[in-house]
Design brief:
This protein is an alpha/beta fold. It contains 11 helices and 14 strands.
Length: 374
């Protein structure tokens, strides 16, 4: 077997390039290619080229697991990046982390609570989305009652638990909480219940393919017309293209980046991405583009600090890695937590795009402490 001292650095990316989440996965692959091209154009990593191996997980967890096994068993990658659904992360973990004991970077905003020495997470978690966002929303809009229609898996369950805590602490209440299979498409009954409760806010964690029929049903029932507020923390500009603009007019979200963020580096990065990928899936945060960018650049910083591809040394450096520039601003691993402190933004959908209405600054992930692996 070739040693890490005399070969290229190998990155494996697993993302949904086909299936219901392909509009997200294609964007993530675009980002990874751009970052790896940048690294190689600057001379590579530790004087050697970086090779990117992209595998299509096809929005199917069994496929993701098989592709992950291929990357660690046959290709011999140094790091695996990817996964969108939390169930996909679990599928990738089995061959990558549990089987091959290989470093894994998960780029999507998610429910938190991942606490493994070989896993680093580069997207937002509930402490960065729900905790700062919902008190602001309640103060700004006067909203008191919340209804939570949800997909039936761990991310919505954990997010809803956090919403209950935060809303209750602010003097509000949750008047409904319903869970549906991820492929559920008929939302007439739950929308009727939403309307009957008179809820001020719908906090949606239904995901594709159920997302579009739910939003259509909610809009036709007159929820927004009567002053109801739709909140969806994963919604980004790619998702805005899935439904008629009027169905999500006024929708609020909270992410680590929106395309309207106007710091110079974010503007330059977006322009380069759009120039490389005209007409392709957009560079957005909810689609894990920002987390993918962050993951690769933090890994690059860690390898450079370690001075080798030795996994133990890279993990030790990654524990405190930071980048001074990135989409939405600088970012850094919180030592011991394997999650990222980053800028967060509240935005509102207006006329088919997102306007940032509040910059929250650097927000801590507040995740568990992880032991050191050797």
């Amino acid at each position: 077997m070739t040693s890490t001292s005399d070969r290229s650095a190998r990155v494996g990316l697993i993302t949904d390039q086909t299936g219901p989440l392909s509009f997200m996965g294609i964007a993530n692959a675009n980002v990874a290619r751009m970052v790896v091209d940048d690294i190689n154009a600057a001379g590579g990593l530790l004087g050697r080229p970086v090779e990117l191996f992209v595998e299509d997980s096809a929005t199917d967890d069994e496929v993701a697991e098989a592709r992950a096994a291929k990357l660690v068993e046959r290709v011999g990658v140094d790091v695996v990046v990817g996964g969108i659904y939390s169930s996909t992360r679990q599928a990738i973990k089995r061959p990558v982390v549990d089987g091959a004991e290989t470093l894994y970077l998960y780029p999507e905003q998610y429910e938190g609570q991942e606490c493994h020495p070989l896993i680093f997470c580069t997207g937002p978690v509930p402490a960065q989305q729900v905790e700062p966002f919902f008190p602001w929303l309640m103060r700004e809009t006067g909203a008191k009652t919340f209804y939570m229609p949800s997909a039936d898996y761990i991310w919505p369950q954990v997010m809803n638990k956090k919403v209950r805590e935060v809303v209750g602490a602010e003097g509000g209440s949750v008047v409904g909480e319903e869970y549906f299979p991820m492929d559920h498409l008929d939302y007439r009954a739950v929308v009727a219940d939403i309307m009957a409760t008179g809820a001020d806010v719908v906090f949606n964690t239904i995901v594709p393919p159920g997302l579009t029929p739910f939003l259509d049903e909610l809009y036709r029932a007159g929820f927004q017309q009567r002053g109801g507020i739709v909140v969806c923390t994963y919604f980004d500009e790619n998702f805005l293209n899935l439904v008629p603009a009027e169905q999500v007019e006024g929708l609020y979200g909270c992410l680590d980046y929106y395309r309207s963020v106007d710091d110079p580096f974010s503007i330059e990065l977006l322009n380069r991405y759009d120039g490389r990928n005209p007409g392709s899936a957009m560079f957005t945060a909810g689609s894990a583009c920002t987390g993918t960018y962050r993951a690769l650049k933090l890994w690059e910083a860690a390898v450079n600090e370690a001075g080798s591809l030795d996994q133990a040394d890279v993990v030790a450096a990654l524990d405190h890695a930071r980048i001074t520039e990135g989409p939405g601003g600088p970012a850094e691993m919180v030592p011991g937590q394997h999650h990222v402190r980053m800028n967060m933004y509240i935005a509102r959908s207006v006329g088919g795009t997102f306007d940032v209405v509040r910059s929250l600054g650097h927000i801590d992930p507040k995740e568990c402490e992880v032991g050191t692996t050797r």
